[in-house]
Amino acid sequence: MSTGARRILANTGYRLLADAGSKVASLAFYVVMARELGAKGFGEFTFGLSFVILVTTLGNFGQDAVLTREVARDRSLLDRYFVNTLALKIVLCAASLTIGLAAASAFGISAETRNVLLLLGPAAVFELVMQTCFACFQAYERLEFIPIALISQRTLIAIVGIVALLSGADVVLVAGIYLAGTLFGFLLALTLLRTRLVRPAMRIEPRRWWPLMKAAAAIGLAGVFAVVLFRVDMTMLAAFKSASVVGHYAAAYRLLEATLFISWSVSSAVYPVFSRLSPVTEPPVGFVFERGIKLGLALTLPLATGAFVLAEPLIDLLFGNAYSDSVGALRLLAPAIALYPVCYITASFLVSQNRQRALLIVYAFVAVENIAANFVLIPWLSLYGAALGTSISTVLVAGGFLAFAGQRLDYARILGGPVLASAIAACVMLLLRDSFPAAAISAAIVYVGVLVLFERRLFPDDARAVLDFLPGRAA
Question: Which domain, by its residues, includes 245?
Answer without folding.
Answer: 3-409
